[in-house]
Design brief:
Elements: H1 6-21, H2 27-40, H3 46-68, H4 76-113, H5 131-146, H6 156-164, H7 177-185, H8 195-228, H9 235-266, H10 284-290, H11 293-304, H12 314-332, H13 336-365, H14 373-395, H15 399-409
Helix pairs in contact: 1-2, 2-6, 3-4, 3-5, 3-6, 4-5, 6-7, 8-9, 9-14, 11-12, 12-13, 13-14, 14-15
Length: about 425
């Protein structure tokens, strides 16, 4: 069930009305039922996967908390082992459904190179909607419990709602347990009807629908035509298509996130902001603090910092940045073009970090302030061009397709 469908326009008001009418103590149960119905509308079998992820991380969370109370008895290693089991189980499910065919295809390429017998080319497993989002959300909860930032949720149904909450289930934001789970626990004590909150939520939803249906879906026509007919178009048309895709993907993704945030607010839940005017960023590093904030912060807290962050010297910091962005690229899709997209963003950040001191010295020698408007405009334009170049790899069907589009853009026979 997509947000921009007739089904959702019937489903959402019905869920909200019943949510307001029923007793407060059972509201979270109603939202759990509604969330599973919402997810099963894509495919009923998906419920088994999200249920498995929920059960594994719920049990692991309880075990980790119990072990944490016995650390003085030498149980600290056991806690790490339980977290590892939770991660490997969930990432194993994610790998099978999202990356197994990708892995098999690349393994066959290697086997063919060494003239070995290839394996089955594909299992043709259907990718479950939103599996990357709810898997990361559940794993974030497990780490938070291990770090003792939150208490493990004892009520399995309340925790199941945290993992499956339908507004942000399939496209984010990837919520933190300290925010959403805390609000779910407070459902029995929330006010039934708050006029200003409901109006604000509906306005956000309307704005999200505008971004998605009016802007993204219309601009997609230009972007799709440019990428599908790159061989017959000139540089100007292809650059226009690349810029159109940059706008399309923002309006599409931000639109869905805004609808999710608005829908949650109507019911009294406050989700985290996911976008903050990313194309006004003055560096790629700033862009990633403004774009898909819930995912960027997830990688920072649960991958970059555990790898050592910037605490182990500059070289290690740059390596950690590259690891994070290569993983981020793979998270977005099982294709080498996504990995290149992530790698380019990582390289941008490393180069930016290396040259920032030199850039600051040049600015000081020219007596230019940081907020000097013409300079800010230059930074914004350069950052947009760099980011938009990486979007070519994100949009292209394959790496070869991406390079073909780039080659057509820089075709020396084309005066444009």
């Amino acid at each position: 069930m997509q947000f921009n469908s007739i089904d959702f326009l019937v489903f959402f008001p019905a869920v909200v009305l019943i949510y307001w009418i029923i007793p407060k103590k059972v509201r979270y149960l109603w939202l759990l039922v509604a969330s599973y119905y919402f997810y099963m509308s894509w495919n009923a079998s998906y419920a088994l996967l999200i249920g498995a992820s929920t059960l594994i991380t719920y049990v692991c969370g309880l075990l980790v908390e119990w072990i944490g109370t016995h650390e003085e008895k030498g149980w600290s290693v056991a806690g790490k082992l339980v977290v590892a089991v939770g991660f490997l189980s969930n990432l194993g499910i994610l790998f099978f459904y999202k990356y197994f065919d990708f892995f098999l295809t690349n393994l066959n390429v290697v086997l063919e190179h060494f003239q070995k017998k290839t394996l089955t080319s594909s299992l043709e497993v259907l990718l479950p909607v939103g599996i990357s989002f709810y898997t990361f959300q559940a794993l974030g909860y497990l780490v938070d419990v291990y770090r003792k930032e939150i208490a493990a949720e004892k009520n399995p149904l309340r925790y199941a709602l945290f993992v499956s909450f339908f507004p942000q289930l399939v496209a984010g934001p990837i919520e933190r347990s300290g925010n959403l789970l805390k609000q779910i626990r407070e459902v029995p004590y929330k006010k039934t009807f708050e006029y200003h909150r409901i109006v604000n939520g509906l306005i956000l939803m309307l704005y999200g629908f505008f971004l998605k249906m009016v802007l993204a879906d219309r601009i997609a026509i230009v972007a799709d035509y440019a990428f599908d007919h790159y061989y017959s178009l000139g540089s100007a048309e292809l650059v226009t298509g690349a810029v159109a895709f940059a706008i399309q993907i923002y309006c599409d993704f931000a639109g869905y996130s805004t609808i999710a945030i608005g829908a949650a607010e109507v019911m009294g839940f406050q989700l985290m902001d996911n976008f903050n005017c990313p194309y006004l960023s003055q560096s790629v590093a700033e862009f990633w603090r403004r774009w898909h904030i819930s995912l960027s912060s997830w990688f920072k807290d649960y991958l970059y910092i555990p790898l050592g962050g910037n605490r182990k010297g500059k070289v290690r910091k740059y390596i950690n940045i590259m690891i994070v962005f290569l993983v981020s690229g793979l998270w977005h899709g099982a294709n080498w073009s996504y990995v290149i997209w992530g790698g380019l963003n990582g390289i941008y950040q490393v180069i930016g970090a290396v040259f920032t001191p030199f850039r600051n010295k040049i600015r000081e020698k020219l007596h230019l302030k940081k907020n000097f408007f013409p300079l800010m405009i230059i930074y914004i334009v350069v950052t947009f061009v760099l980011v938009d170049f990486t979007w070519i790899f994100f949009r292209a069907d394959t790496v070869q397709h991406a390079f073909a589009v780039i080659q057509s853009i820089f075709n020396m026979n084309n005066p444009a």
